[in-house]
Amino acid sequence: MAKRIDVSDLDIFYGSFKAVESVNMSIEPQSVTALIGPSGCGKSTFLRSLNRMHEVIPGASVAGKVVMDGQDLYGSDVDPVAVRRHVGMVFQRPNPFPTMSIYDNVAAGVRLNSGRMRKATLDELVESSLRGANLWEEVKDRLGRPGSSLSGGQQQRLCIARAIAIKPEVLLMDEPCSALDPISTLAIEDLIYQLKSDFTIVIVTHNMQQAARVSDRTGFFNIEGTGKPGRLIEMDATQRIFSNPSVKATEDYITGRFG
Amino acid sequence: MTTPATARSGAPLPGGQPASAWTGSRRRTGDRIFSGTATASGVLILVTLAAVAAFLLYEGYPALIADAEDLPGDKSFFAYVAPLLYGTVLAAVIALLVAFPLSIGIALFISHFAPRKIAAFFGYLVDLLAAVPSVVYGLWGIFFLAPNLVPVYQWLEDVLGFIPFFAGPTSATGRTMLTAGLVLAVMILPIMTAVNREVFLQTPRLLEEASLALGATRWEMIRQTVLPFGKSGIVSGGMLGLGRALGETLAVALVLSPADVITGNLISSVNSNTIAANIALDFPESSGLAVNALIASGLVLFALTFLVNYVARAVIARRREFSGANA
Q1: Distance in angstroms (rounded) separating the CA atoms of residues A237 and A245
Q2: Are the beta carbons of B213 and A51 separated by less than 8 Å?
Q3: CATH topology for the A5-255 domain
């Protein structure tokens, strides 16, 4: 069910401001692709263009192609709502619905997509999603408690469970560990490693060790200066990016000379 | 002791003892002024409420214990106030039934659907509605709304006459309970819409995006995040509106053609009066125990408003753990 994504000549705009310029990228199925780069270089913006969440911001627009499974996600007849049902997303800060129980949080997406469902089927799905997010053992006795009663790391795993419950083909993660402590971060990284057998995963991270630990391929974004659009500088196997990058700017960034 | 902490320094004081940088007055002037005024404001509300309640009790008590033949209409106070209480609740419920969904719809349109410029203009219009004096609404109700509703009422009687609400006979002037309720609905709409708009705008963007990223349409996103998040605000807005509808005097006094009855018929010329309108209409012509009876009916209104607010608060508190405030 994991799918490949091919991005060609993608420009991303906020109003008339061009935030990201001419990105060409192939994202392999059943692998983890990490996007790194200094703040403001457009990597989160690029990530959000992959499930058409970018256009939720007023005035935002995109030019170019994002092809998944032979279908251009920005084709004129494509419904952005349908795109998001195939490309799930986990955000920087854990954002479980505070008005829902743990159970209802996980079931939220399914209830949108498939209307009424048998209780037993839903129970099973909630359990398997929570197991998939390594959270089941911790919450199985309190599924009726509010999602906001969990710790930050647990909340983020709850959000992952919520995202995988609708069985997307691709999972986008926008700095999923930046608000978490090291132990919770490790739990999420382990989870990412397990999830890649089922999903295509794209993760934006500021933490280069994290990119090196979890990803198979890494893309480096950079920006020439304020007001200039961000660009994809280099993309290669993670090992190669971190040992022998072909562009000088990449090496400067990963060795900590800037950024 | 009352010296502000900032006036202290680590240098030894002339007295000889070295002053530590860590000690100092824990009661800072700014804090004390702030907590003092906040407490005073809280106490002032309680005192005002207590004073009103005491006045109502003291002045209304004679009517509560009076014999039936001494009271207006030669009946017990309970029989006197029951139709008024019924009319008050009925008018307010009609107003709330109409205004509640409408205010949520308008607020959602302003906060989530309209282009920004139109939304600002709309918000301004709604606020303007709140500034119209109630006597103007009353006049509008008599001279515009009531006559124009007569054909509608006639139609309701003809088509839905089997429902007791619309049994008729239709009032020739249109000055009915339903008209009064609709005028009240227009009057409470602005405050409810303003409150709803504010709470809807407070929905964290992060939650809305979480919902959209799950593949929610805009309406599904609103149902999943905006409405549950704003629930306590919506109820508060409804309470403000209901409070105004229960207590509104002039508009009802002008619009309604009252009688001393309890009836479910909303479109006839025989209608229950409301407590507030009854006080306004009868007060100039009353004396002696009749005045006490009016004040006692005010006490009933006071108690009713309390009860409604208490119930609403209790409803919200029951699901406190799931409040949007935990986001």
Answers
A1: 10
A2: yes
A3: Rossmann fold (3.40.50)
Q: pLDDT confidence of B20, banded at 50, 70, 90?
A: low
Check CB contact under 8 Å for A162 and B325: no
The alpha carbon of B156 is separated from its chain's Cα centroid by a whole number of angstroms, namely 29
Among residues A154, A146, A203, which one has the least CA distance to residue A180? A154
In angstroms, the separation between the Cα of residue A115 and the nearest Cα of chain B is: 12
Contact, A168 vs A88, CB < 8 A?
yes
Q: What is the pLDDT of residue A140?
A: 92
pLDDT tens track for A25-55 = 999 999 999 999 998 889 999 999 999 999 9
Q: Could you tell me the two tokens for A91?
A: 């955000």
- The yes-or-no verdict on residue A257 having pLDDT over 80 is no
CA distances from B77 to B81, B271, B307 (A): 6, 19, 20
| Closest approach of B10 to chain A, Cα-based (Å) | 38
Q: Could you tell me where the beta strands, DSSP code E, fall in B130-229?
A: none
- Give all domains of chain B, ordered by start, each with its CATH number: 77-288 (1.10.3720.10)
Question: Is omega for the bond preceding B169 within 30 degrees of 0, making it cis?
Answer: yes
Contacts of B206 in chain A (CB under 8 A): 91, 93, 95
Q: Is the pTM of this model over 0.90?
A: no
Contact: B211, A97; criterion CB under 8 Å: yes
pLDDT band at B156 (very low <50, low <70, confident <90, very high): confident
- Token pair listed for A186: 């490790």
At B327 the pLDDT is 62
For chain A, domain boundaries: 5-255
* Closest residue of chain A to B219, computed from CA coordinates: A112
Burial class (CB in 10 A: 0-12, 13-18, 19+), A79: exposed
Question: Which residues of B make CB contacts under 8 Å with A?
Answer: 116, 204, 206-207, 209-217, 220, 224-225, 228-229, 231, 321-327
Query: Using CB atoms, which residue from B214, B217, B220 is nearest to A162?
Result: B214
Indicate whether this complex's ipTM tops 0.85: yes
Asked if the Cβ–Cβ distance from B215 to A108 is below 8 Å, we say no
Say how many Å lie between the first and final Cα of chain B, rounded: 42
Pick from A77-91, A146-160, B123-137, B208-222: least confident: B123-137
Q: Are strands A71-72 and A60-68 parallel, antiparallel or unpaired?
A: antiparallel
Chain segment B251-310, per-residue pLDDT in tens: 888 888 888 878 778 888 788 888 888 888 888 888 888 889 999 999 999 999 889 888
Give B224's contacts in chain A (Cβ within 8 Å).
Answer: 97, 108, 112
